[in-house]
Every structure is written in structure tokens, then in C-alpha cells.
Amino acid sequence: MKRSIIAAAAAATLLGVSACGSDSSDSGSSESGSAAVVEAQAAAPAGLVKDGTLTVCIDPEYPPLEYYENGTSGDIIGFDADAARALASYWGLEFATQVTTFEGLQPGLQSNRCDIIPGGLYMSEERTAVLDGVSYMQTGPALILGESTDLAPTQNSDLCGLTITGQNASENLTMAQDIAGECGATKTSVQQYPKTADTVLAVMNGKADALIETDVAAVDIVKKSNGKLRLVEGFFPPSTEFGIFANKDAEITAPLGEALKALHEDGTLGKIAEKYGLSTESLDVY
């Protein structure tokens, strides 16, 4: 029981978990975070959900990309949040968020509740088939192990017989399911949870042995786990990119690409990356 309580507290602390289970609206100034403030340089895109405002669907429980400044309240900060603020400033717009679960990001965009979605979303073939995406960061999955296993895995088959977890609706969960499918007769369980914090807690409590998470988030999770979790370096090579997404053929798509390139070239994205401890070498806008 004591270990369960400690793990729950640690998971909540390291992830800054939002208690929000359903969509809600939250407006924020484009001035939040000095690294995100830029001069207006281009006309605002047409077809915005709200005139004069860039509205972003966001799941604020994913440091260092997007999370609440005070854990469960305050401004939503992080690389993605500040990059979106910089986009708003670049176009001379106000900035607003629509807070949702991870699973609600794409539906929120497609139902026109917001103009764009960041959120640690891979530029996968499945996603780019239905949405427009602009790449901004090289990334890929990472493997996190808990105290329940002392393995030093180097290939997928080394994970056979374990319990692997991942977040609902994520590419990482699909990868866990694919690995389990490769294991054949060796029973390999896959657990899924609605929030990243739940997946981390499952491993810290010993309910799962391994977690597949994006490399950017994995470093932060392990760093703040007080030694209860460890990262398996190099298990998955960087294989994709994070993207900021708009609806297919939306009027904002072309301006979004142009604005992100400009913010990359003038060093704004680099400053935001450094602010949140991310490598500027991983930035990759195209």
C-alpha cells in the first residue's frame, strides 16, 4: 500500500496531471513565456474558428511539450504551447486553447473546435491521410522499464512475456500491440490507459513491466521518477517527426508551414526548445 501511495504521488508530480476528463475552454495571452513573444510579421490566415484568435486543441499533461504551470492549474506551458503562442504572435492574433483529452485532440480539430493541434503527435501515414501536418521535431518511441524487470532488452523479442503499456489512441500503443503480436505463443499482455500519468503509474506500481512513450516525454518521466524507472537507450531509433496538424486542405495549412519555418529560421523555436531542456538539433521544420 505504501509503495502504491508513493508511486501515485510521484506520477502526479512528474507529469503535472490535469484532472480534466472532458473538453473545456481556456483562453491565454500570447504574452505568456518571453521566448514565445515575437513581432507580428504576417497577415492572419483565413478561416479561423474565431476571428482574431488562434485556437489550439491541447492535452496539458505531457511535459515538456504541454502541461499546467502549477501542476493542475495556471497557464498551459511547454514547448508546444509556447510554439503555438509564437504562431499567434507572428500572425498578430490572440491565443486561446480548447483543453481536451489526448483521444479528443483529432475529433476536436475535425469538429472545428480549434484551428490546429500540436500535442506530441507523430507524422504517421494514418494521420497525414486525414489531416494536414507540418513537421517540427525529429522524434520516435522510447522504452521505459520498471523495477519489476531487470532485463537489458535489445530487440522486440526480448519483451515477449512481459506486460507492456501505452496511452489510448497513440502510435506507441499500436507499437506495443504489434510487438505482442510478434510474440506468438509467448503470452505478452498489453494494457492501455487514457492518460500518460496512468501508464507511468502502472509501471511504477508493478502492474506493467514496460512503457512505450515518445523519446521527448520519456527522458522527463524517467528523470523525475526517483530511480523507479529506467530508460533503455537506443532500443527504438528515431523514426518519425512530431507535427502540428490542421484539417485537410484547410486555409491555415500553407501559412502554418511558412510561419513555422520563419520561427525556426529566426531562432524563436530554438529559444523555446532551450527553455524546456530540449535539443535544438532535434528541430526539423519542413
Provide a descriptive summary of the structure in words:
The chain is of the alpha+beta class and 286 residues long. A hairpin with a 3-residue loop joins strand 3 (61-62) and strand 4 (66-68). Strands 11-10-12-9-13 form a 5-stranded mixed β-sheet, with helices on both faces. Strands 1-6-2 form a 3-stranded mixed β-sheet. The longest helix is centred in the N-terminal third of the chain and has 14 residues, at 2-15. Helices cover 30% and strands 25% of the residues. The protein has 9 helices and 14 strands. It has helices at residues 2-15, 79-90, 105-110, 125-128, 171-182, 196-204, 215-223, 253-265, 268-275; strands at residues 24-28, 53-58, 61-62, 66-68, 76-77, 94-99, 117-122, 131-139, 141-146, 163-167, 189-193, 210-214, 229-232, 240-247.
Main attributes of the structure:
single chain; 286 residues; alpha+beta; five-stranded mixed sheet; three-stranded mixed sheet; 9 helices; elongated; disordered N terminus
